[in-house]
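[INFO] parsing input record for NCK associated protein 1 like
[DEBUG] input buffer:
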Amino acid sequence: MSLSSVYQHKFAEKLTILNERGKGVLVRMYNIKKTCMDSRTKPAFFSEKTMESSIKYINKKFPNLDVRGSTQHLGPVHKEKADIFRALGSYYHTFVDVMEFRDHVYELLNTVDANQCYFEIHVNFDFTKNYLDLIVTYASVIFLLSRIDDRKALIGLYNCAHEMIHGTGDASFPRLGQMILEYEHPLRKLMEEFGPHTKAVSNALLSLHFLFARRNHSADQWRSDQLFSLISNPAGMLAPINSDTMACEYLSLETLERWIVIGFLLCHSCLGTTQSCLDLWRAALRGSMYITLVRDEVLSIHKVTEEAFSNIKGYGKRVADVKECKEHAQTHSGQLHRGRRHFLRNAIREMETILANEPGLLGPKAIYVFMALSFCRDEVTWLCRHSEHASKSKNQEDFSDSYMAEMLFLMMRLRSLLRKYQNVLQRYYVQYLSCFDAQVLSSIIQAYTSVTKAPMQLRENQDIAKVMNLIIFHTKMLDSIEALIAETSDLSIFCFYVRSLEKFFASTLEEPSMLRYAIAFPLLCADFSYATDPLCPEESPHLQTCALGLCNNFLEEMAKQACTCILGASAEQRNLSEQLLPKNCAATISKVRKKRVQKASSKKGEPERDKPGAESYRKDRTLATNLDKLHQTLTELCWSLNHVVSFVVFEHKVTPAEYLSSQLETSLSRALVQLAKANPSSPELARPSEVLAGVQAYVTFLMSLMHRVGLDTGRLLRSVLLQQTQPLDSYGEQTLTTLYTNWYLESLLRQASMGSIVLSPAMQAFVSVPKEGEQTFSAEEFSDVSEMRALAELLGPYGMKFLSDNLMWHVTSQMVELKKLVVENMDVLVQIRSNFYHPDKMATLLPRLTAIENVLKRMTIIGEILWFRSMAQEGLQEVFSNRCPFLMGPIECLKEFVNPDMDIKVTLSIFELATAAGLPCDIDPALVSALANLKKDNSSPEEDYKTACLLLVFVAVSLPLLATDPSSVYTTEIDGFSNNIHCLAKAIIQVSAALFTIYNKNIETHLKEFLMLASVSLLQLGQEPDRIKSKNRESVLLLMQLLVEESSFLNTDMLETCFPYVLLRNAYHEVSRSSALSRLPTH
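[DEBUG] output buffer:
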């Protein structure tokens, strides 16, 4: 045949196009199979009971379907014909594409045989590769077609709907139906089809013999050959690595096995005639048990081959060979590949280290990099394929690898080096092409064309073929580096082996030495985009969802582990810092004091208690503490998360450090809450100072993370700590603010109202009164100055405002009840207010008052709440002054400018600002706001004002009743009363100031009126004949002095006008004397 006629066949173009088309058809067939296997994605018609009879009929009669005469069976199809036609169109046309693909493959294979094409992998690599690829792709399509169980129903339903709508069946249906029947037994039919092509196929396969033998070496052979070693020959480190067949060097071993196994399975007659074919076939059967058809669809090569050859006469020896190869593969293949993986990890680690330090070596040693990527990819995919399908193997450890992460990571590193130094490769090979390749090619062409009638056939002139292969590789280094990377290291197969990938990832997290390589799994998800095919765009969203989902899961799991280590190490640091708290040195101080007191020590001394810092002394460095292990694990995980700043998965930018930041924000919030409340079921809370010390230990350790991972710990801590100042964090969970607010209100202040806790102005704290079976905590440990300061620092201004708002809510609830009591006694109180100078009338009016004790009790509770608030405000003021002195100064100056003539709204605005900084104010703006909200719509301001005045009257005339209470005894130790009635002064003053501010009345005038009423009422105690009613008269009289001290609107001169100061002096003397006598020991 002439040369021009050969060119007209365009073999190269047809092979390329048909291979691309075949891969697309194969992917679409795979998509149909997976869709029909899943009940969630399967066409709805297959799940309907009404369609069952129609589908059974179609499967039984296929392809001879009588649509018009089978209305009884096809009635449901007729009802839904439009939906069926629309839904099954893509499925049907995919099967038509398979038929057309088969026709084109038949035609091309026959043309190739007719032209006696020459196939030699080392000479015409691309031609031979495309020819073998086409055979394997075609066989894979047919195998996959037979695995679609619903193929007859899909085709038959569509054709029936087509005929019902258009009056005639689809034109392709007869041939398509015949093809489906022919391939009921696909392998038998394929063997028949490829009988005429045995010579061409076997010649192409035989050209693989030397290449397959060289690629199929054991790890020991690779090691002895020093494969991939860049330093084995120091003198030749800069010499370029060349080969007669450059493309064969990085050809996948899996591809070779697929070619050999499927090729000889289809063209099996040569196995009995050519020993080389038999040896090559047996070698391929020994290496694997499964080969890939497409994605996770595999061919069990021994089982399929044995079944096929068992039905052929005279193939007993071949069946025996298959069984022997199967036994060998099951016994030795796992160990062989495990040894290869071990060798590759060490070799590639060395290569990556050298190339990272000397990227200039990438030019001359580029072929080594692509070979390494291809070899690693082969081993990874072999393990992935066999770990999924060889579940019943005897040696399961051969199909698992806890060190897989390192190999994946090294592959990613080599790829990143190729991309990073792509310009180095391009500069090197531009010079190589121009200075060497061009001259060699020119001299060879001149030599061969200078001979008379030179035929220039490649099979006879292999030197030029070798040079052409070399030049092709060099040009790829200029233009197709990314394509070569995908060809040699595409790991998108894991998109379809999700379970295996998750197992590898789980084993990586369990192996401490592999933690730093865990980032390889999220990076691998970026390869899933290679699995997309332009002929099957409908599966792209699924692949994207799978890739992003796995990437998120991997990074979240890594972040969780890192977060657990961070919080564990923080907790250890917190335990160490807790040893330095003052409470923990009490035992040491007590022990020292005992040694000084005791003259002779006991024979058996107490065991020495470790002092803080003892953990830093090590007798043996090999003994690792828990903190050491946490630091080691954390270092590895942080190194992994910080390996790349970001990467792209299906056009989504992924930032690993942000996963750690997000996880840490959630976990840190919970950890801080656990510092305060270790046991969620217990009502007990830790002291604010202890929690603050723990928070500071956490913060100190977290700030040290900045040099380990690219994490903005400052922003993270600000966000978490700011959330703790709010009632709920960003996840709707309780914060320190909520916990402490509820605890102080429900535990401390509630017990104070019950008399179990007493306010001590001398100690500036609430103190516990020992009672059996009641007290579970020491109040002074939670309410002294240092604790209030710590509380303010933990809760911050926002948290303290939340605490204040809740305190005010409780105050208003008491005020509501007090107003009710005033309304009940309003008539009597009006008369008392106008007749308090008439003792005879007062004597008749006072007994008519009801619920006097209730009024005093509720006012005392208000006083306790306001006292606690003032102590919390003092703590806030001190913290604010230390943290923001530049703000506190201007606020204090602004507060000093307030005067009585200023607009009340401006005054309250300034006071609100001052209160937010913790400064005390004459009028509490929070109390004013809370009480103002109590005004009812149906009551006039005059009535509310009258109620406020009468409330003061009620309290004033009720004070003498306190003298009858045995608990109304002033104690100098606490500078107060054991029933907390000294809190009345703050309640009266602050509530009065707030109420009369609301009604825009003069506060001083009303307080003077209250002082007058209270003086008259208390002075009458001196004339009380019943000594029981005036038992604690001196103690109660001191309340008058407390009122003056508490208020900025009253002074001693005002008190002197209505209450003799000598009575106060005598009362102080008597109270002090009684208190001193009570402390004397009894005899």
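[INFO] The chain has a mean pLDDT of 88.
[INFO] shutting down worker
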